[in-house]
Amino acid sequence: MLRYDAERVWSLQPKPPGVTRILCLGDSCTYGTGVTRADAFPALLDQLLGPSVDVVNAGVPGYTSYQAVRYLESEGLALEPDIVLFTLGFNDRRSWGALTEADGARIVFMYWPQSYNLEQPESPRLTVYQQRMRRLAERDDHALINPIPALLPLTEPVHLFDKVHMTALGYATVAQVIAARLRELGWVPDQP
């Protein structure tokens, strides 16, 4: 799925055998605000991982971690995800609390790169929220994805005017980092 679209989510069929389904939960950065549907990172991730992986974009502009967790509990798990990728943090500062791997879905957190993270390439800094996310992932043994190092060497702008949402180049780089990390973890096939 390329964007959160209630009709598309509701029309998803049960996951076919042999397919790995990734449910991307998040806010406007996951949704793809500022770029075309095809340039949002979940769409690019879907292309990178090939036909044996189905990437569902359930990003909703303005969503908070509370809303994403509620969506996962009320509707998201019905989509039979094998992996749930959480990319949130701008719309709230709520503690995630104890988030466990539910119904066999693996949990992975990802830092959403902000321009703040890229201001000092020699020593990139994390926001307080990103630091809390890292501690939570470590505490509860969840996977963590950090695309910041991959963005540092790029010479073209990766953020839009608001310094939060990405350009097509930024989203493409983030999708490549996610694909590589999920392959490294052995959660998706090595090649599409």
In round numbers, the mean pLDDT is 81
Q: Structural class per helix/strand content? A: alpha/beta
Low-confidence runs: none
Strand residue content: 5-15%
Structural features, described:
The chain is an alpha/beta fold and 192 residues long. The chain has eight helices and five strands, in the order αβααβαββααβαα. The protein has a single domain, classed as 3-Layer(aba) Sandwich (Rossmann fold), CATH 3.40.50.1110. It starts with 5 loop residues before the first helix and ends in a 7-residue tail after the last helix. Helix content is 35%, strand content 14%. A five-stranded parallel β-sheet has the order 2-1-3-4-5, with helices on both faces. It is globular.
Report a brief summary of the structure:
The protein is an alpha/beta fold. It is built from eight helices and five strands.
Which descriptors would you attach to this protein?
single chain, 192 residues, alpha/beta, Rossmann fold, five-stranded parallel beta sheet, globular
Layout of secondary structure:
Elements: H1 6-11, E1 20-26, H2 28-31, H3 41-49, E2 53-59, H4 65-74, E3 83-87, E4 106-110, H5 115-118, H6 128-140, E5 143-145, H7 148-151, H8 168-185
Parallel strand pairs: 1-2, 1-3, 3-4, 4-5
Helix pairs in contact: 3-8
